[in-house]
């Protein structure tokens, strides 16, 4: 039998285990032109929360009683397709199934000898590309500028901070535990860290950690931390809206202070970013990330949860900040 | 005697006549290298409210018990400076005085035979330049797109709308009286108008007037109208934060719905704009505006108040929406 995870009901507020359902189906057999894939690593990401909501967005919402999909590394275990052979590993947007059939469309082969397979879901996957391309397109970092990052020990945030250091910036990260702060500074080379959970006055804390103000704020969280960043933004500052995890589980319309005044006075640029819009740049961006990885300018952290049955819980843990770096489930 | 208008106290909330003081001084006499200027037209603008506040901003705040300054057209009535002769008209940032002395720095000669003198404070002054340069730098209008403008019958807004029509856009304006809506459509060629004072559901009204959504929102007002525009913004929409007049007189921190979610989902670009940052583009931009003016593609409206003593009241009237087009005081 083949195990599959369905979205059973749309989460209200914070997702719960009961929003998911484990279903069994016959293990599929590849027909002509098809390949049989065995799931090895599953990426769980905050943006999946958005697809569980029945709303217009950049990708269609998940259907109820259908499998959820996310970034997955799988092994080709049977092939009737000339482009893939048994033993190949591929990366693609696939379903939360132990085994599945594909025609190969949208799948990219990955090399397990170059880096660990899970890295293709992180630093060399959409998370690394998000960091690199958004800083390139919107951040426009200049040497000596100050880069502030929220969700800084996470998959995207830790890469953003390291690229900031490569570019010669003063890099300050915000995270929710002292352990994460230590990781940021010792492993990823951030200059300063702020623990938002033990800090009362975030506006002041950011001001203290960024004595020259904030030139670029890379935002993964939204909400009050964004407010405090805006209170410290410099003239011609840039804000990259990459995510807003602090709001994803809100059931009411979240409110906060208005930014219009600051936007005008400081001529701030604020721009939302979705890595999927930049597929044409994935090639050169991946090459740059690989090169930095090879020469040791870039490193990464993963939180690996084991077992197909633990995928939903790993996803829920994202909203508790239980991951350090990329959260991946190993099957 | 020479009459001068001082800032007497910093306005709390909405400015009042009592915030200003009329002072008399000796009429000045030009020394060597100096010119004597007689004020002809005074520009009153919403942004001056910001300079009355004691806060860090893009220009220093006005000092208490010192003259206010704004864009002024003046006549050279005496000259000890080779670059200016009696009878010249100039445009510059000058003090609210009937007569004043200058060395000529920062003054530009204007030609009263080309267009009416007051136009140099409006369509050929900072307001016209604001419209043209911000649309060029941030708006990036494409033929067939939808442009939404607030403060649409005002000096900047009416120029923005007309440039939108020149670029082949569907142009919708928001204003506060039916008379202004009529002006927008009949004189400035807007496709649709929305009276925000008589409309309960601005989100729906904008949706109805912009059936293909909003590609570019040019915001002069901020607040709830910005919220309603964001509710209708398209993927890759651009928001130009040019002003936030609805908030200028707020004494508490204004709050509203958070935009982070929309910014990410729709990959919106939002950017504050101050025309002073773009002085190097004033030359070519003015040429383009003059050319459009000459061939009748661009027109303008002015509200001219008469009399030096009425400058403060004309400024206050801006916050009541009493102007159509550029508000100017003729001395």
UniProtKB/TrEMBL annotation, chains A, B:
- What is an example of a GO molecular function annotated in this UniProt entry? oxidoreductase activity, acting on the CH-CH group of donors, NAD or NADP as acceptor
Query: Which SMART domains does the UniProt record give?
Result: PKS_ER (SM00829)
What are the entry keywords?
Oxidoreductase
Q: Which residues form the Enoyl reductase (ER) domain?
A: 15-329
CDD domains per record = PGDH (cd05288)
Query: What is the superkingdom listed in this entry's lineage?
Result: Bacteria
* Pfam (any one): ADH_N_2
What parts of the sequence cross the membrane?
none
Question: Among its keywords, does the record have Membrane?
Answer: no
Name listed for the protein in its UniProt record: Enoyl reductase (ER) domain-containing protein
């Amino acid at each position: 039998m083949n195990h599959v995870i369905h979205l059973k009901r749309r989460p209200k507020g914070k997702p719960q285990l009961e929003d998911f359902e484990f279903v069994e189906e016959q293990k599929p057999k590849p027909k002509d032109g098809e390949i049989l894939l065995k799931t090895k690593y599953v990426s769980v990401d905050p943006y999946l929360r958005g697809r569980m909501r029945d709303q217009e967005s950049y990708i269609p919402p998940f259907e109820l009683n259908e499998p959820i999909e996310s970034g997955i590394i799988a092994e080709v275990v049977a092939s009737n397709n000339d482009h893939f052979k048994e033993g190949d590993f591929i990366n693609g947007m696939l379903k939360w199934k132990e085994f599945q059939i594909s025609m190969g469309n949208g799948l990219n082969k990955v090399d397990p000898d170059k880096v660990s397979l899970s890295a293709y879901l992180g630093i060399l996957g959409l998370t690394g590309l998000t960091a690199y391309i958004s800083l390139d397109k919107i951040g426009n970092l200049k040497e000596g500028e100050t880069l502030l990052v929220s969700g800084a020990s996470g998959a995207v945030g830790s890469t953003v901070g390291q690229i900031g250091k490569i570019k010669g910036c003063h890099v300050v990260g915000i995270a929710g535990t002292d352990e994460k702060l230590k990781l940021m500074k010792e492993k990823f080379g951030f200059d300063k860290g702020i623990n938002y959970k033990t800090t009362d006055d975030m506006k002041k804390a950011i001001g203290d950690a960024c004595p020259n103000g904030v030139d670029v704020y890379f935002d993964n969280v939204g909400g009050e931390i964004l407010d405090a960043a805006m209170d410290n933004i410099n003239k011609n500052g840039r804000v990259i809206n990459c995510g807003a995890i602090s709001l994803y589980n809100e059931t009411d319309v979240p409110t906060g202070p208005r930014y219009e005044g600051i936007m005008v006075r400081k001529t701030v640029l604020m721009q939302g970013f979705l890595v999927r819009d930049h597929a044409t740049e994935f090639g050169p961006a991946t090459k740059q990330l690989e090169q930095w990885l090879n020469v040791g300018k870039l490193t990464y952290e993963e939180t690996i949860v084991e077992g197909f049955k633990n995928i939903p819980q790993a996803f829920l843990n994202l909203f508790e900040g239980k991951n350090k770096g990329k959260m991946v489930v190993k099957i």
